[in-house]
Amino acid sequence: MTLTTPPDTRPTESFVPLRPGELGSPRYRKFRNIGRDTLIQYAVLLILAALVLAPVVPTLYQSFIDRPLYESGGIFSLDNYGRLFSEAGFGDVIVNTVLFAGLTTILAQLFAVPMAIVITRTKLPFGNFIAGSMRWPFYISSLLLGFGWIILYGPAGFFSVQFREFFGFVPWNLYSIPGMALTEAVALAPIAFTFCVGALRQADASLESAAQVCGAGPVRILRSVVVPMLRPPIVYSSVLIVSMSLETLSVPLLYGQPSDITVFSTFLYTNGLQAIDPDYGVLGAASVLILVVTVGMVAMQAKMLKNSKRFVSVRGKATRPRQFDLGWIKWISAAFITVYLVFGALLPIATLVFRSFTLVLTPLKSPFSTLTFANYVPIFSYRSYYMSIVNSVIIAIVGAVVVGVLATLAVLVARRSTMKGGRLVEYLALAPQAMPGLIVGIGFFWALAFSPGFVSTLLNGTIWILVIAFGMRALPTAYGNISPLLMQIGEELDNAARVSGADWFKTFTRVLGKLIVPAFAGALILVFVTMIKEYSPAVFLANSESSVIGTTALQLWAEGNAGSVAALATVQIAITVLFVTVATKLLKGHSDA
């Protein structure tokens, strides 16, 4: 007997739906015999690689050639590094940068760690309100906070003048490295606070119970058990704060220039943007030096936390964290936190807003006698000024959506695909956190100079290159917000969808996509806030038509127009508060967002 197989008479369209009861998998359209899953996954990999390598490769190349990138005939040499380290005053730049970054990190941790412990582990009065208030400085850029501190605590500041009137002297000097570090620490402390609070709220309290059984009191338990378990979040946040201190331009520029204090960021600014004849080779060498230091700190972080099992405190049988009663110490803690919030953030921000409605702010004259709206007139009268507001909002909105989608796809490729380069996708998505904003701006500036003519024409001097640069900087934030939630979703949902015939992309759009909506929405908020207060890359990439709020504020401050600076800062604060308030209302009830 001869067995024959009947020919397949089913239609050959790109997609064949299954009939009820029919076994098999649907066939999806292919491009050159490549499935759409593969196309999407490798497209994500290539986009991330282009984003990361675009600013890095030109910067490295520029540091090793003897002329600007746009000039032909460059010769490889190490002269740029020799001239960098032999330049007069560069040793002081290194010392100032180390002191500034180190002191900022120490102060930020001294603010954040005790506050996180007291709020989560003790019966603190108004604990929930204080916990929410600790995040206020995150929504305001250090640039705006620096303006507020100068108006309040600067040499001619409102509080400084009043203090001098009463006591005859002012015991602080804002235009110094400690003054710079204190301002920056207030702005960055919420980062360390958030890291520590998250770790403390998830930790198992059994270790604390064991210490209590052994006779340890509340203070001893906090010092000997709780604080050592915070080493991972302290290390992570410290590395992030150091890298952000290295890149920040606002506070060193506002405080350092009047006192002739130069750090890496202001060195790049003065030798690049402000120089009549910039030395691009030295600029590239300095940028590579900062990049190497930042990457080295990330590697050191990984080494310090290599034995992560030492810090495991969450097991299968967890207990709720207990709260200790510190007695009279809790009132001292509440007072310390109140001083930090009021004098560090609330008063400078309120003073900045109030300054925007006065001609002058000084205790020598009643500010209510000089109330005016004149500071807002230039902001909304000159096209370049009000367009900076429009540009910032457009960049933040478009960037939030684009970065949110890219981060979501990157998480899916890295965590929920069989792609061989999945782990590389995760590294590329997180790599921008080790790249200072000024380096990103300089790198993209050189990348445009080195790119084909049509690319340079399309992006150079437009807000779209700022969307790319700002978005790259915000990508790790979005990725870090979405990844943990996806890791909590069991893979059996993916397997069920695959058994039903769905491919990787269909599984995402029909199953996983709906489950990660809260995390995606939360990422949109974080990216919007991050991008609307970003300005560092724009220093090298923007022109008069594509300026943003930060660059316009720096320009107005350099012109001595403090009132309009305050007005512009108030507008940015109002936009941020409005967006966060509306988004929070829309997300009410979604605890994962």
Summarize the structure.
The chain is mainly α.
The backbone outline, from C-alpha atoms, is globular
Helix fraction bin: 55-70%
Arrangement of strands in the largest sheet: 1-2
The total number of structural domains is 2
Structural Rg: 27 Å
Please identify the top-level CATH class of the largest domain.
Mainly Alpha
Low-confidence stretches: 8-25, 308-319
Could you give a short account of the major beta sheet? 2 strands, antiparallel
CATH topology-level fold name of the largest domain: MetI-like fold
Helix count, DSSP H or I runs of 4 or more residues: 26
CATH homologous superfamily grouping of the largest domain: MetI-like
Query: How many extended strands?
Result: 2
Task: Explain what this protein looks like in three dimensions.
The chain is mainly α and 593 residues long. Helix 1 packs across helix 18 and helix 12 (264-272) packs antiparallel against helix 13 (280-304). It has helices at residues 36-63, 79-86, 90-121, 127-133, 142-153, 158-167, 177-202, 206-213, 218-226, 231-247, 250-256, 264-272, 280-304, 329-355, 376-381, 383-415, 422-430, 437-450, 453-459, 463-488, 492-499, 504-515, 517-532, 538-541, 549-558, 562-586, and strands spanning 30-31, 34-35. Strand 1 and strand 2 form a beta hairpin. Helices cover 67% and strands 1% of the residues. The chain folds into 2 domains: 33-58 and 373-593, MetI-like (MetI-like fold, Orthogonal Bundle); 92-255 and 288-312 and 326-372, Orthogonal Bundle (MetI-like fold). A two-stranded antiparallel sheet has the order 1-2. Residues 8-25 and 308-319 have low confidence and may be disordered. The protein contains 26 helices and 2 strands.
